[in-house]
Every structure is written in C-alpha cells, then in structure tokens.
Amino acid sequence: MIAFGAVIVLAIPVVVVVGGLAAYVGHSASETSPDQPFIDGPEQRPNARSPLDCREQCFGLDDATLMAVSAADVAPLAIDDELNGVGELEPSAVGAVAPEVGEHWLDVGGDGECSFLPSNAPYFSVGPDSASSDPIAWVQTWKTGAEMMDIAARAFPTTQDASAFVRDLHRRVAACPWQDLNIPSAGGLDTSLVQITPQAGIDVPDDVAAVGWVREGSPGPRWRSYVWDLQRGNLVVQVRVLTDGRILEQDVAAFAEHMAERLGGLSAAAP
Q1: Is the N or C terminus of the chain more exposed, i.e. has fewer CB atoms within 10 Å?
Q2: Rounded to an integer, what distance in angstroms lies between the CA atom of residue 189 and that of residue 193?
Q3: Is residue 152 within 8 Å of 138, Cβ to Cβ?
C-alpha cells in the first residue's frame, strides 16, 4: 500500500506512518523530475449529479474486486508490476485498522481533522469514523521502482452514508492545507512540512462523486501522492498513486477518470 506517500510493508494492510515516512525522506531528490505546476481546472464534484440509490445496498464489498486493473490499464502511469493481486490481502473493517493508524498520526503531531492523510482506504483514522464496522478491502497494489498505485474500497450501509463521507472528505481537504509533523526531514530539520492541495475536477459519470487531493513535502516538491476517492451508491473506491515526479498529474487524472468510468459501469442492485 501507499501510506502517507511512503512505501510500507505489504504483508499486513495496516499503515505505520512514522517508519514509512522515515524511509521516504531518504530518497535522493536528484532522481526526480523538475517541479510541476498543478493543473488549473474545474471544481471537484463531491456530490453526484444523479446519485444512485437502492432499497438496500447497491453494492457489496465483493463488487470492488471488479475494479481491478490490468497491465494495459496502468501502462500510462509507467507502472508494470502487480505486487498484490485480487484476494491476496485479507479484507478487514475500518474499526480493526483505523485506530492504530490514528494513534501514530496523532503521535507525530497530525491534526485529527486531517486524519485522512495516513489512511490506506476510505476512512478517517481519528474520530467516530475510526470505530466503524464497515468492511474495507485492498483490491490491488502495483509497483515499479519508486512508483506505486493501489486500489482500496469500502462498502457503506447506504448511499447516504457514503455520500456524507465524501462530502466530509471534501471539506476536510479544504481545511488542511498543510501539516507540520514531528518527523525529521531530509534537510536536517526536526519536523517535516506536508502540503495538501485539492486536485482539479475530473470528468465522471453522473452517478459518481469524486474528491481528489495531492500530498507533497519531504524530500521536496517533486515527490507527490495523488489520491482520489470515487463514490457510487454505497461503494467508495480509493485510488492512490505515489511518484517521485516521473508520473504527471494529468496522467493520474486520466487514470482516475478511467476508474470512475469503471465504477459507473458496475451492475448495481435493483433501485
């Protein structure tokens, strides 16, 4: 998985923020591409134009496995190797994973409001959401060199619950432009300044909502983690891309649009 923009051990789907970032800041900035300005585009869509609602659940967690991608799908990201395939990582529940992630996040000085940053699936690692019994799954992980992409999902009880989560995420991203964390930086400072910026909106089907943000910071602005949460009905699919600068923002946006189209094509339960 990608955790806080860092590579972590994949044997268990639990984020260890401190160790991951410590390894992350040791990478040589000379290996990265020139600084990239952010795309100036339309506003995001935290609310679907025509929300998909069902009498019960539109989707189960098993439906998320249909969001798995092929080598051809990830080729535009220049990522070639499937590190974890469908079914290789055991599904879990938010409440079984989030508290440990949140504890590490607070220990390094992160704000509870910004606890979406270290999460490795669609959840908030601090606060009431961290105790949820909603099932979560890690669908796939791809990695080539320093570049990584992973897909995770959460099945909410209802469309309304999933929609509320995505709207809350959109609000939190706007409220968290930066975090100053108690983790030594590559430049010898005692802390690491992490910047969070909303991504430009992408084209998605009318019944899909999409919220995206990018994290940048140590060891420099070339390193970025791009994260998109895509919601349709009661299912939220999270797509994350970690790059040292070789993968461009427009490539991630195009991939997120592809994933949104895939999500829009899933067969839902009877409305």
Answers
A1: C
A2: 10
A3: yes
pTM over 0.85: yes
pLDDT by position in tens, the chain (length 271): 334 433 332 323 333 333 333 333 333 343 445 567 788 888 899 999 999 988 789 999 999 999 999 999 999 999 999 999 999 999 999 999 999 999 999 999 999 999 999 999 999 999 999 999 999 999 999 999 889 999 999 999 999 999 999 999 999 999 999 999 988 766 666 668 899 999 999 999 999 999 999 998 755 667 899 999 999 999 999 999 999 888 999 999 999 999 999 999 999 986 6
| Burial grade of 55 (CB within 10 A; 0-12, 13-18, 19 or more) | exposed
Kindly report the number of other CB atoms within 10 A of residue 231's CB atom: 33
Which two three-digit tokens encode residue 36? 């990239």
Q: H-helix or E-strand containing 175? A: helix 159-175
Give CA–CA dist 10/12, Å, rounded: 5
| Residue type, position 49, single letter | R
Strands 92-93 and 135-144: antiparallel
Q: Which amino acid is at 168?
A: D
Rounded-to-integer distance, Cα 165 and Cα 154, Å? 11
**In contact, 243 and 224? CB cutoff 8 Å:** yes
Which tokens belong to 238? 């999270």
